[in-house]
Amino acid sequence: MKLSIQVNEGPYNHEASVTALNYTKAALEAGHEIFRVFFYHDGVNNGTRYTTPPQDDMHIANSWSELADKHGLDLVVCVAAAQRRGIVDEGEQERNGKDGNNIAPGFRISGLGQLIEAGIQSERLVVFGD
Amino acid sequence: MSETKQFMYVNRKAPYGTIYAWESLEVVLIGAAFEQDVRLAFVDDGVYQLCKGQDTTGLGIKNFSATYKALGDYDVNKIYIEKESLDARGLTLDDLMPLVYEDENDDWAEKDSIKVVSSQEMAELFEQSDVLFNF
What we know:
The complex is a heterodimer. By secondary structure, chain A is an alpha/beta fold. Helix content of chain A is 37%, strand content 20%. Chain A has helices at 16-29, 60-71, 79-85, 90-95, 113-121, and strands at residues 2-7, 33-39, 75-78, 107-110, 124-128. Chain B has a single domain, classed as Hypothetical Protein Ychn, Chain: A. The longest helix of chain B is centred in the first third of the chain and has 12 residues, at 20-31. The mean pLDDT of chain B is 94. The A-B interface holds A 6, 8, 40-41, 80-81, 84, 111-113, 115-117, 119-121, 125, 127, 129-130 and B 1, 3, 5, 7, 19-20, 23, 26-27, 30-31, 33-34, 36, 130-134.
């Protein structure tokens, strides 16, 4: 089945992003196709490479990046939500005159149209959040 | 991408206190350009999103309630409010902003977008939808 995932909560504060990560892994292992993972609301905070959790804790951002690398996942961070919360890629850095960027490998910043398209193109859109 | 799906946006949270309501509305406005069959549901504290006379001066954050009135211009005119959620909060339709649209198939007559439905009817609407966004 062709699935898309929406992640609405940030890492650590809320279990939703880890549940989404585990669900995505399980779906891929079961042979399903993941059309896109879309990060919205505080979920955009999953996409910064600047997170440095303690070594005995799970590294959620890296886990997403590794999964994306392994399976060619399309990890999309909502641009409007990202701008509010300081998630920046090279393009946004240039556009908004920031002194750096923090997007994690495998993630890209794009518009809400990507979420709507995911809803149209996928057989199921699975939403993780409160 | 000619397929039309039925999109249901479920709004469950109060307009202020968290950003879910406002960012949900942003999805609805962007999504309106995709010419899908769009419906909005307001349940639980989500019914507060449509209350009249919202004033955020004391909060110091943006009052976005006027944006709901523009939904009709975006062809978003199927808005369902759960009766049980209104009742539980002591609200009636009179407490809510009137939301209207102009019906192009009826000489642009102004019509109400809001329909109050029971939780049973709401469940049926959810069941009929292809894509359900929970906010």
